[in-house]
Amino acid sequence: MGKLIITLAPTGNVPTKEMNPNVPMNPADIAAQIYECWKEGAAVCHIHTRDKDGLPTSDVEANRAALEELDKYKDCDIIRQLSTGGRASKTYHERGQMICLAPDMASLATGSSNFPTRANLNDPETVSYLAGEMKKYGVKPEIEVFDSAMIDAAVRLCESGEISAPMHFNLVLGMKGSLPARAKTLFYLYESLPPGSTWGVSVIGKEHVDLSVIAMALGGHVRVGLEDNVYYSRGVLATNITLVKRMVNIAKAIGRDVATSTEAREILSLRKK
Ligand code: MG
How far apart are the C-alpha atoms of 247 and 206, rounded to whole Å? Predict the structure, then answer.
């Protein structure tokens, strides 16, 4: 079995300091936590940015600031992935504005579903626009799968040349309004993936450890971080570091080596640094 890629999602769009004071909100804190987690074994970071009031923003300057803060850690070669998620902007031009910063990767949901209190709207025009921007700047999409139809949509985009193979999928489980966090759901998605693709899971809620372990055993990768879970366990607040460390420890226990960023770059067929 290949090495395990641990992705860190430190901030997200939803968590607040009230929910968990450890959530990094400004570019310096986001970069500092990414660096600490990279030293523990995170190979990829999935970045969301916030404005001065702590609200989600896709603003290109906010994203640039986060990447520049990360640049200050000269030894850190973590793979950088920016979010194009729909909560931070209204139009698809706004959502995709940071792709011009040419990060290694950007998230791309290839269809629509629901978040707990609103729609997760990604109509075909939006998806094609974002995929086109990623292609233009040499950014590899991480296909965010909130519904099984999004796998098939990605395959069609690959067939039409809008996305290049091999694709990388993040199976998002436990988002209320989208796919439930159940083992049988994970197995179904896993069996539906196109051959030759890489994949991982991002699990929201108390099942996140169990389902991450199943993904690891199937050869998949894992994402952890306060974006997905502000609790480490029942009643215990998490930090990004404790969430990463737990995955590293589980990987050790089941005999799966953790990939460095350099190794992850190769596994994900990313351009060389
Ligand atoms: Mg995200």
Answer: 15
